[in-house]
Amino acid sequence: SGKDIAVIKFESDKYIPALTFADSETLSAGSFVLAIGSPYGAQLYGTATFGIVSFPKRYIDEEVSNKMIVNEYIQHDAAINSGNSGGPLVNMKGEIVGINTMKIAFSGEWNEGIGFSIPSNVIKEFINENVK
Known about the structure:
- This protein has one helix and six strands, in the order ββββββα.
- It is mainly beta.
- The chain has a six-stranded antiparallel β-barrel with strand order 1-2-3-6-5-4.
- A hairpin with a 2-residue loop joins β2 (about 45-65) and β3.
């Protein structure tokens, strides 16, 4: 599998509210989203950027372990900076529709507005298959 997903379980004496997963199939081009993360390190944790979904199901060929596979992503224009990877992409109800994973950038060029997130339905399927 070429999914950039890790599941971590922890205990805390402090209450930590959890976000719920939405159905990523409900996204359409033009849906509003927020990307939340910690760009450039912990000092800027909780940074949010706003954008729209450009393409709710973008399939990208990628090489993983010397094999070509096709992964599904949500393409959006919410700014994704170093450190945002792993943060949630949320809809306007505050539900997770994806996990931010990458952006397209070409060396020497400034390209904004081409970010990608793993869809929540792909994440839920991964968890159901791999977490006991």
